[in-house]
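re: that chain from earlier
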Amino acid sequence: QVQLVESGGGLVQARGSLTLSCAASGRTFPTYALGWFRQAPGKEREFVAAISLNGGKTYYADSLKGRFTISKDNAKNTIYLHMHNLKTEDTAVYYCAARTNRVVLTTPTAFGSWGQGTQVTVSA
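^ sequence. v structure.
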């Protein structure tokens, strides 16, 4: 349906900043939003943020509000995740995903297309 490729991951010190990118290609219909999830070792995949393609409404995990910001560049078919004041607990593989369910949900099952993920490691 849609191909997603993440980039921008790497090693960063605590309190630092990092921006992830996700380039989308292929047929996106019926994609309603693009977003980010993350998965740390031994934990379930959790929702981070999403942005709707119509209107640009944003959604964030409550625990990340104020530190993470999602944005998009329609001309480049790319979304971004701007991460600030990073903490060691932010260490995880970050995945870009496309919501293919019309209902506004933040569960992984609502997202039908996934990227391969990019590793973010935050050191103390």
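The chain has no helices and eleven strands.
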